[in-house]
């Protein structure tokens, strides 16, 4: 349950930090379950890399068709030109996504306990829906940089209504890849929109080319 002050902070800054949002039991459950899923995962002959380069990412059908699946995406530097792992499998994954909240009982249990629909309503969404879930790993040495972006570019609605709920499962800071947000970023026009193109591929529509503040 958000306080009035937290709601005011969210409306003013575009984000709010909720301390102790997830408890130790929930955190350990998710971390253990992620390890189990990776252990059970048998990589296909063609590995899918989650590239921070948008052109590579948008051409990957494995990524585009993952909305109702639990799929595994590798770091760019985790696999060499011959298709061999450069690091152990447990250290090669960039993220797991995008339907754990629907398909996996452990993720579903924890996410239901956190009651995101109630939080969404407090933040102004009339009918909150969980569209996707991601477990993101910040792997040492091989992790790619994720640049400044707007989630509504990928989860587009009219009017914009996308709200992301992120929580760290381990201590995070600027030295090890913590999440960062731009104060007032929610008031900036949407820069671009990710969409399917007529030829069956994907593309970005440029909506606003003014520089970031």
TrEMBL record:
Keywords tagged on the record: Iron, Metal-binding
Pfam family, one: PhyH
GO MF term set: metal ion binding
Record-linked Gene3D superfamilies: q2cbj1_9rhob like domain (2.60.120.620)
Protein name: Phytanoyl-CoA dioxygenase
UniProt organism field: marine metagenome
Lineage: unclassified sequences, metagenomes, ecological metagenomes
């Amino acid at each position: 349950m958000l306080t009035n002050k937290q709601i005011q902070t969210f409306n003013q800054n575009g984000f709010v930090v909720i301390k102790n949002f997830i408890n130790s039991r929930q955190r350990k459950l998710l971390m253990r379950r992620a390890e189990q899923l990776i252990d059970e995962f048998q990589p296909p002959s063609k590995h899918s890399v989650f590239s921070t380069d948008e052109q590579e990412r948008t051409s990957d059908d494995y990524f585009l068709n993952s909305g109702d699946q639990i799929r595994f995406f590798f770091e760019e530097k985790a696999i060499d030109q011959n298709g061999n792992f450069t690091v152990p499998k447990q250290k090669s994954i960039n993220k797991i996504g995008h339907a754990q909240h629907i398909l996996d009982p452990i993720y579903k249990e924890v996410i239901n306990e956190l009651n995101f629909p109630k939080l969404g309503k407090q933040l102004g969404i009339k009918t909150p829906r969980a569209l996707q879930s991601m477990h993101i790993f910040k792997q040492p040495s091989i992790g790619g940089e994720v640049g400044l972006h707007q989630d509504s570019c990928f989860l587009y609605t009219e009017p914009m209504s996308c709200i992301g709920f992120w929580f760290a499962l381990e201590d995070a800071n600027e030295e090890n890849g913590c999440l960062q947000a731009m104060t007032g970023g929610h008031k900036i026009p949407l820069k671009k929109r990710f969409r399917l193109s007529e030829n069956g591929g994907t593309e970005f529509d440029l909506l606003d080319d003014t520089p970031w503040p």
